[in-house]
Amino acid sequence: MEQRRLGNRNVAAIGFGTMSFGGMFGATDEATSLACLDAAVDAGIGHFDTANIYGMGVSEQIIGRWGRPDLHLATKCGIVNGPPRAVRNDEPYIRQCLEESLRRLKREHVDLYYIHRRQPDIPVEDVAGTMSKLVQEGKIGGYGLSEIAPSTLRRAHAEYPVTAVQSEFSLWTRLPQLGLIQACRELGVAFVAFSPLGRGMFGREPLRRDFRAGIDFRETNPRFTEPNFSANLAAIAPFRALCAQRGWTVPGAALAWVLAQGDHIVPIPATRTADHLRDWQVPDLDAADIAEIERILPAGFAHGDRYGDHQMAFVERYC
Q: Known catalytic residue: 93?
């Protein structure tokens, strides 16, 4: 697999997100998750992304029991489970969360540590200072920020170099193209794209609206509620037809489009099962292919916001 730079290491161009191991998209079990991790390594994936809030530690515990310290690993802190939902970026809390994550992961060091959401009343320069101490102490290899504005990145990077910025980015979520991807490229910061397959919308088959109430957060997500859900299925149908015509898998083509937006971009698709990894075969897209995909799915085509209002509370908006 193609390699891309993430901090001081080269990693496979496609990483792996583990949020679904914590049950965010429906029920799962540890044995299935472990088999999925093994299949990801067999597929050439070497960067794995988790967070302390995924299943309230479940995802980290699974990775810890998996026991692969040779692989590049990122985790996160900063979101305080509610209700009400809150964020904390103070140094004591960051340190406490890191120690708890390291225990679950069965590691003494994590390669990349993110602030999952920024606390508005703490200067980001202070957060960067905290993270720099953790780097110097050997606890983390580098630090990242998630769902921030380009201006925040520049301020943090001036205090202590940022390794990566993580934001949602896919064919139907294009906001990072309005400044964040460019700022990362300029500063030499990796851009890690989460949900590059639209939370299953660009999966092997069209989604059905049978999300489990109270378990799968898509059940109340604006893009997955009616009438938006049906409108989005209809909008994506011509893209599915194009993929079938060209012999591409739908997930593979969606990932190829994300990768084509910059050589500093590392998408981290997620799945609960090893079976879906077969669909992540990335075709070689030429300029004509990309133009045709963007004609079918132009920027802004999605119906509905990507988050509900309660989930947008600590996402920085800059356009």
A: no
